[in-house]
Specification:
- This protein is an alpha/beta fold.
- Helix content is about 25%, strand content about 25%.
- The protein folds into two domains: about 1-140 and about 305-340, Quinone Oxidoreductase, Chain A, domain 1, CATH 3.90.180.10; about 155-280, Rossmann fold.
- It is built from ten helices and 18 strands.
- The relative contact order is 0.17.
Length: about 350
């Protein structure tokens, strides 16, 4: 089988490996689609810890081709999405219900072989059956959506709130849609790229602004009185600090974007005090994968328009080296014929 193996900083090779066989409690999937995540680019550039050599890729869906001993509730031909994050279940955070804080957390596509390959082994416990209404391509978006669902749980958007989302990539577009579904009275998305602003408006945002050309807090601006909830979905020092500036008194600020390790942000504590802000981070997807698939099955949230590029496995090294460019979401498709099944 063809695989994308990460060997170290800037070293990703497309190589042939023997197709694995599932052991007890495992499922062998033929990978239909695997999304490129910012984490994959961080791994490629040495900004995220991993265990090379490893097949990266953690946002994926596929078709069951073989089941291992003890697996009784999945069968060959079933369509599934994979939750890559595997908690130990015995450390203190796990036993407090905080599996996403597991001290021994491992992840498919990060620590263990993942989805940038023609086939992938996954524990049965990490596989979720796709609703009949959800395509395999959409199933590859279940993991990022699950992370966004957790983020929205923390943001606690209330009916009628003004919500600002900073960043119009796939994550920002999903968060903006979720804010609308949770009853936001006004959703404003900020991104310097016109194509991303246009996408946000098509998907239901009330306004989309170019932060390099306009001040949303100015008189008559899209956020003249500030936002009740500000969600940072870029992962840069500038936008992380900007989120605090855009927050109205009593607002909640969610730092969702992943900044590079060691990067610091200048924050004025007195501003947080005067505004009485609540600032939270959001980490992966505890117990939200099933909810994400239910949302996809309901049709109330759109992810298909966000997939603006499909590419073969062989294109992955260049795509990671070059960055996302104008694309909102790129998905690696090892065999396009599988998407028709």
């Amino acid at each position: 089988m063809r695989t994308a193996v990460f060997h170290g900083v800037g070293r990703l090779e497309i190589v042939e490996r023997a197709t694995p066989r599932p052991g007890p409690g495992q499922v062998l999937l033929q990978v239909a689609a695997c999304g490129i995540c910012g984490t994959d680019r961080h791994i490629f550039h040495g900004e995220f810890a991993t265990r090379p050599p490893v097949i990266i890729g953690h946002e994926y869906a596929g078709i069951v081709v073989e089941i291992g001993p003890g697996v009784t509730d999945l069968a060959p031909g079933d369509h599934v999405a994979v939750d890559p994050n595997i908690a130990c279940g015995v450390c203190r955070p796990c036993r407090r219900g905080q599996v996403h804080m597991c001290r021994n957390l491992t992840a498919l596509g990060v620590d263990l072989d993942g989805g940038f390959a023609e086939y992938s082994l996954a524990p049965r416990a990490q596989c979720y059956a796709l609703p009949q209404e959800v395509s395999l391509l959409e199933g590859a978006m279940a993991e990022p959506l699950a992370c966004c669902v957790h983020g929205m749980d923390l943001a606690q958007v209330r009916s009628g709130d003004a919500v600002a989302v900073i960043g119009g990539g796939a994550i920002g577009q999903i968060l903006a849609q979720l804010a609308r579904l949770q009853g936001a009275g006004r959703v404003v998305l900020s991104d310097p790229a016109a194509s991303r602003r246009e996408m946000a408006l098509r998907l239901g945002a009330d306004a989309a602004i170019d932060p390099l050309a306009e001040d949303p807090l100015a008189a008559g601006g899209a956020l003249e009185d500030g936002a009740d909830v500000v969600i940072e979905a870029v992962g840069s020092a500038r936008t992380t600090a900007q989120a605090i500036t855009w927050a109205a008194p009593g607002a909640a600020v969610l730092w969702f974007g992943v900044t590079p390790p060691g990067e610091a942000v200048a924050v004025e504590p007195n501003l947080i005090f005067q505004k009485e802000l609540t600032i939270r981070g959001a980490r992966i997807n505890p117990y939200t994968h099933g909810r994400a698939l239910a949302l996809l099955g309901s049709g109330r949230l759109q992810v298909r328009p966000l997939i603006t590029q499909q590419a073969p496995l062989e294109a992955l090294p260049a795509l990671l080296a070059e960055g996302p460019g104008d694309q909102i979401k790129t998905v690696i498709v090892p065999d396009p014929a599988l998407l028709e099944r």
